Amino acid sequence: MKLWLALLVLSVVCSCKKHQDVTPSGPFYYKTVLVNGQTSANLRYTAVNATPVVTLSFSAPIKRESVAASLKLTEQATAKPVSLTYSFSGNDTLLTVTPQSPLRSLTNYTLTVTPTLTSTQNTTLISEVSVGLTTAIDSTDKLPRISDSLLLDLVQKQTFAYFWDFGHPVSGLARERNSSGDVVTSGGSGFGIMTILVGINRNFITRQEGLARLTKITNFLTNNAKRYHGAFPHWLNGATGATVPFSQKDDGADLVETSYLMQGLLTARQYFSSTTDASEIALRKTINALWDGVEWNWFTKSGAETNLYWHWSPNYNWDMNLPIRGWNEALITYALAASSNTHPIAKTVYDNSWAQNGKMANGNSYYGIKLPLGPAYGGPLFFSQYSFLGINPHDLKDAYADYWQQNTAHSLINYTYCRTNPKQFYGYSANCWGLTASDEQNGYSAHEPNNDNGTISPTAALSAMPFTPTESMQALRFFYYKLGDKTWKDYGFIDAFNLTNIWFADSFLAIDQGPIIVMIENQRSQLLWKLFMSCPEVKKGMKNLGFQSPNLN
């Protein structure tokens, strides 16, 4: 009897032990994730090196043979898998993972541990673990080093190809962007006309080639392009000249875009100054007819107001009702409206509409830099660039500002904001800066310190070259040497990028490419400033508005 009881007790004990071996002691889950020894609350890690060490800790020992099928690292954009090595420690509760070969720089990866991972107690992982890894900038040069002078030449020449090689084959005008087909832009074409002058001056093309292209452009504008009281629409069909609506009610005249076009045409008129070459004489005559045809003062609602209006529509009349008020990119509109031989505005329109009788003043300091005009922090950098492709701000003053101080302050504030990087976007630095209107990852926006989502636009820093020559040259070297494998393409630098989200545009825009060439040239030789400011009408018109400058004498 005693022997039977002993055998029964032994059987129960063994049965309990066997049951404990197969019964889970609790859920199987990950406890922590470390990447190179660092934690992240959302399991997203940025600025990761090319060979990161990822350590995952679990609530129970891992069954080693379940790891291979449960662990994967993929490149997000391509879904391409990356081979891994891994090891165990901490009684198999720690899994250390490393890529077998270095990861690509500025690339998003995802490390995934699926619920097929099993513990030694035969419990499966209760939920998937997903670790985001964004690799850092590779500091090595992507393109061969050349002198700064040759680099500037190269940037101007390659960017020029957007306007020369990609110009519309029928009209010669600049396409809105590299994907816009027949849609050309009047303002961007004005910038493009100025780049043709740089192209001749830098021997990218001959004078005769440039003259032939400008003759094609001006003949198309004269004979084909739709005009409204002499003003052009924002967008045109480059093959037919028909208006392409920019928006529902923006289907007629755009006076600001027209002013950019006239800025370019007048600069070209001053360049092609031969008194004996019949083609140059004819070009000047055509430009003068286009210039004199713009009814600038009609855009005060036929003289009924002391405000100058941006738009007029043949279908919606003045419904858009947008006065052109500063401070923004439209100073050139007032300079030209006051300079017209045929339809000039009065100084009261400038004071009342543009300057708002002094209300466009700022006067505050940002990062210790005083800003005379405009919104807080200055707004997007195109405010200090588009009008000043032709207007020389050196020693230019009026009742409201010193315009060299204005543009320099605006540029330095934008630079200092990016260098300071209050929102902690990855990549912002003294070498990587520049906020302006451009494409972004899911659209288009006017980026500036008060509208900043991590998108850097190369045109912003590069077109500020006259105002921040040292800082802009630093940015140029960085964009070209350090990011050139991603940012440098057939038409120069791409429109924008975001190093926090690892996004690089595949777009080029006329209004962004043009100022790069022109403002680099103004810094190098002041070519466009000298030409535009030599226009006798401009000298007279700007003086009538109260501007003072040695360049107006």
Automatic annotation (TrEMBL):
- Keywords on record: Signal
Q: Which residues form a coiled coil?
A: none
Q: Where is the SbsA Ig-like domain?
A: 46-129
Which Pfam families did the record assign? Big_5, Glycoamylase
Q: Kindly indicate whether the keyword Glycosyltransferase belongs to this entry.
A: no
InterPro entries given for it?
Answer: Glycoamylase-like_cons_dom, SbsA_Ig
Q: Which parts of the sequence belong to the Glycoamylase-like domain?
A: 323-536
This chain belongs to which protein, by name? Beta-glucosidase
Supply the source organism for this entry.
Spirosoma aureum
Q: What is the lineage of its organism?
A: Bacteria, Pseudomonadati, Bacteroidota, Cytophagia, Cytophagales
